[in-house]
Batch of 4 targets.
Target 1
Amino acid sequence: MPNHGPFDSRAGTAARPGSAATARPGAAGLGLTRMRFGIDLGGTKTEIVALDRDGALRLRHRRPTPPDYPGIVETIAALVAQAERETGTRGTVGIGIPGSLSPATGLVRNANSQALNGQKLDRDVAAAIGREVRVTNDANCLAMSEAADGAGAGHRTVFAVIIGTGCGGGIVSSGRILDGPNGTAGEWGHTPLPWMTAAEFPGPRCWCGRHGCLETFLSGPALAADCDGPGARDAGAIPARAAAGEDRAAAALARHADRLARALGLIANILDPDVIVLGGGLSNMQHLYAKVPPLMARHVLGDVARTPIVQARHGDSSGVFGAARLWDSA
Ligand SMILES: [Zn+2]
């Protein structure tokens, strides 16, 4: 398949002349002259924002995400129609999903929202709203947003990670999402924890079928289980418990920070990003920004290890803002 650019949806749609999604009103040529709509398709809520040409937030709405696929497409179309009515303008549409489109089939894969898997989401939404849409995973959206006007602004290459209920990553370089022939660039969460100790090897079994994925060590549920045993899933109180003097909580946080440092050290050795941005629920744990950089330096080859590690500026909105920016690069 020829390379149609960094976005899954373009590869998926452009390869299918005659599909509904090729009815294209020249959205890419609109540049920043019109409104940009971003949609974050979450497991429970679907959110839309409108960013104007200056990047200012003009509108935000949320609706519950329906359990069925036709309902999801209808909800997205209804949110776009509502947003266009309220802003009085037509705009480009980008969608962030907790999964990706297969470059081979154009169908959604690896979404934790089961209704989406195996569906041609970009083409179905395009047919419903009468224009091409761009779809990518939520970590790429985080990277896009933070690189544009967030914690990664002014840096050339931004590696953004989500550490929350899951663990993912995205790369934006010179304003463009890096993606590749497999659509897997930045898929950091399902690579193994590097420099495993004997006690860590081979690591917990992951939902993806592998053992020892970073997600099984770094996500919120993984931290909770490491601290409080199998079945524990909420890591939210662990920092406060550690601060109150609980040794078990402090030890779990220390292991978690060391593992994150190893995982990011590997990224520095391969990609050497100019900045690493942390998003997702665990990015609120402030000790990470002090503890991880010196730990990471041990794993970066050579005599320099100065990659800044910073918290996402747009917080929970990074994904939806990034989705709105999916048409920023041609
Ligand atoms: Zn995995």
Target 2
Amino acid sequence: MATIEVRGLTKRFGRVVAVEGLSFAVAPGRVTGFLGPNGAGKTTTLRIILGLVKPTAGTALVDGVPYRELPFPKRSVGAVLEATSFYPSRSARDHLRVLCAMAGLASGRADEVLAMVGLTDVARRRAGGFSLGMRQRLELAGALLGDPGVLVLDEPANGLDPQGIAWLRSFLRWYAGLGRAVLISSHLLSEAAQTVDDVVIVAGGRLVASAPVSELTGRFPVSVRIRSPEAQRLVGVLSAAGLRGHYESNDVVVAEGTTTEAVGPLLAANSVVVQEMAAVGGTLEDAFLALTGQYYQLANQPSGQYQPPGQYQPPGQYQPPGQYQPPGQYQPPGQYQPPGQLGSQPGRDGSVPPSGSGTGSVGGMP
Ligand SMILES: Nc1ncnc2c1ncn2[C@@H]1O[C@H](COP(=O)(O)OP(=O)(O)O)[C@@H](O)[C@H]1O
Ligand SMILES: [Mg+2]
């Protein structure tokens, strides 16, 4: 039984089509990630589900009815859409008590939800002095007041530190474990992949995929990471074979949406020297790429900035080889410690180039 059901949803703002023909369902007892690049139509869809925006066409049902027809909306669905305002001088507890009064709930519920989000110790402190992470927990507490069967959070991880994200992750798992439905949006596919059971992926207002994460990541080819002293020729061979990808560094190329089984024979046939080759990924980005043909930019970048498929970034934009540690400075082999004691030997890892070589970038973007 679906707790949220979106059918044929379309929303136009003038000439802008924010959502087009979108259909998906959210199951209870699971965390569903509503994922896609910025501008994909996620917030618009969530606002329609919550009765805040009227769709141009289609329906969005919560527990089988449109939001506005729910007998007790706060008990059916709790939501945190975007930074709401607090009276800065009001304590966290008083803020929630006001919300209780507005929703016709007993004021004692405020302390219960404060405990659920771990804010009991600061219940009497002014919300205006809260850190971003504490404010987000307070907003979450507000969404939980009605003990809702459905929790909807729009980009809840934005601005949270790793600790905050880890806490949120375990909280959402716990809440779904109570048999509730959790729907969270995110433009960061990889981050959300660790949190959610199911994904609904959108791009340009349209559905890209709707499936359990494991099913989706297993459905598509992985990427292949290749280290070669003739990377430029390697890229030529890959491009000629219709494969797209990006440089990870001067001598490392990642071919996307393919397999080592496909790439190996191709490079052998073209006599490309290979020093390393490994399958990587099987990630949601790979699935997104395979489904849309777009390169998904992980960083916080507006959607227009994807690297176009087929275009390898020229090696010149990476750190020139001369800045790597020259071979002469490595410790000569004779000075290594005998096996078993290698771990403590400084310079053992001297073959690693200094940081900043571009290996941490995604999509070949420096
Ligand atoms: N009130 C609005 N008026 C006009 N355009 C809007 C409005 N709300 C959203 N849009 C547009 O609809 C598209 C989808 O936006 P949004 O739902 O916020 O995407 P997301 O949350 O996935 O980033 C964007 O192109 C956005 O500019
Ligand atoms: Mg949004």
Target 3
Amino acid sequence: MSKVSIREVRQYDNGLIKESLYKSLSEIGFDLARLKGKRIAVKPNLLLSSKPEQAIVTHPEFFRAAVQIIKDAGGVPVLIESPAIHSLSKVFRATGYDKVIKEECIEVDLNQDIMSITNESGQRYKHFEIMKSVAGTDLIFNLPKFKTHGLTYVTGAMKNLFGLIPGMAKTQWHLKANTRELFSDFLVDYFEAVCSLFIKPKGIVHLMDAIVGMEGNGPSTAGKPREIGAVIVSEDAVAADFIASSLVGFNPKLIKTISIAAGRGLGKKGFNEIEFDRGVFNKLRLEKFESAPLPFQVRLEKFKRLNNLIKRLTVERPVPIEGKCTLCYQCRQICSAQAIDKGSIVASFNYDKCIRCFCCIEVCPEAAIRIQGNILSRIFSPKH
Ligand code: SF4
Ligand code: SF4
């Protein structure tokens, strides 16, 4: 059995969050003495510079409560993160992290040196590069924000660790693992590699900010904030993702990372395999939480007999929106396929080069890129 603590919190109030996290850590049997005298990597989701109320990043008050707990227990929190495109200082300013970092005197890891890690049991991928400084820490406090995601369905505990791969190297993985299936395999192979660095007495604790999550076209500017009212804590990332996804009414079977990871024994994925408070779960359970519109490329995976030509003709594509695009070209910077060029009214997309990773949608600060469907996608339009 894995333990997942789920508690109701409805405000980004330092006292409430901290009290809740303390109770949650106690409920899962986490011994705070493990933090004493240790360097603790704190990994929030800082996808890009945005306001906390947009629900793109882990809320700064959630981060504050987590680092206070580490400090109270005699540990040293070190913020480790590598945003997709913006500099850390820009993200800190926009999100309000700069204030918390200063007030709480938090060390920020600015060393972008990388190290290679290997997962010999990786099913598809074995070698990864992560920020070297992670290896110098004793434990990770992983602080995911619960959001929808077009490629992986949700982004939660497992996906948040992807952020330990330095900035632009992340987009290379989108290029390499360019389908939902490949990317999910990659995430699980990578997750297992990171876990192998933190076997006991080290460890990874997942403290999920689901107070306000994101629904719709997540995980970035096109998604919609939605109150969930939950803080979810576990040492089992798979179980935490399972509970969070179930809480908002998603079918966990549709989330490949959960089923692949559980199938490999990296965590639990069933109500009968997880110890959690059913009363709180039932009270907080949401209905009609809007999922991200899955790219047709993802849905097409069900129709494996269709040949590549049809696939090329039917996949959806990212289209910049006139009147919203400001020609900032942040999409161009993130595009590992070099499919975006300068344009006169909107950014210019080359769909022969585009691999449909949709990273451009994630980083566009204006929500100025939409996914354009096609005739077949509208005919099939399967429910997911
Ligand atoms: S599509 Fe978005 S990211 Fe790209 S140039 Fe336009 S506003 Fe900037
Ligand atoms: S244009 Fe957008 S979706 Fe296409 S490869 Fe570039 S970042 Fe990915």
Target 4
Amino acid sequence: MWISATKDYTGWGRREVTNDDEEKGKAAPGSLDTMVLVPTKATIKSRPIVIRGEALEKFPWLLHAFSTRHAGNLGFTKDASPRAVERNRTSFIAGLPGKAWPLVTLRQIHSDLIHQVSDAPGHPLSGDGLITRTAGLWLAVQTADCLPVIVADRRSRAVGVFHAGWRGTVKRIVEKGVGEMRRSFGTRPKNVYAAIGPGVHDCCYQVGAEVRDRFHSQFAYAGELFRETRDSDEIHERYPLLFLTARAPGHSEEHLPKKIFLDLVEANRRQLLDAGVPETHISASPLCTVCRNDLLFSYRKEKDAAGRLMAVVGISR
Ligand SMILES: [Zn+2]
């Protein structure tokens, strides 16, 4: 499903998950398929700078990339040196096929605001989505657990990039993004291809009840986006045999606090489907930013020290 797992781009190969992997915690948690990522020789030697989405690979006019932490911090975070971030951005862009195109970034505010651009604006735009049909621009969003989503219309050759954390997802930023492309460029959803980049997956995305309630108020399918466990359930799932015999009758685990996990990838995939994008046109990275903190930045894992990853998309002239 996801080309990043091929050694061409990241040096990671794939094979079937086995029981042994699960016991050792080696399985790729949250992956959308049943494959586990395994390092190839190239991984050990190289430090991948970019990951690419399979759904977007087949169009020569369409250029895109999701950065890894090996590209350095690409966001002006609180503790970052602005000069270092500028330097990282310059070398990241220089390594991409479109090279010296202007970079259009956003002051991201967890909104559903989407801007249509046809050049690099002189002032910073606030919002969480960018769309264009103009060639020679890099549209970018920055993330460190939130999902970057890149979409492209193969017919009108228009592109968009969106920043979707839980707030933006509740506000349907991706669904609205496809709608904006329809209004601006006459995009028909059946011609849209989409790649959901790396972000926090449901293995690691614990949320509060208020987040679950917000989704339930907005989406009929919200029940399918959450997984609830009590601490003992996890042990149960992992070691079922232990509980088969050792469980005392009448012993209750009801008092254990509930944990709620959100599947943000599925939430955004559903929005793309609801917007009319064919299922076969959507790919999603199996990489969780928390689990793969060696390769990606994660705010949950690194707090204020977390750098920012960048997702970029552009149209070749
Ligand atoms: Zn994870």
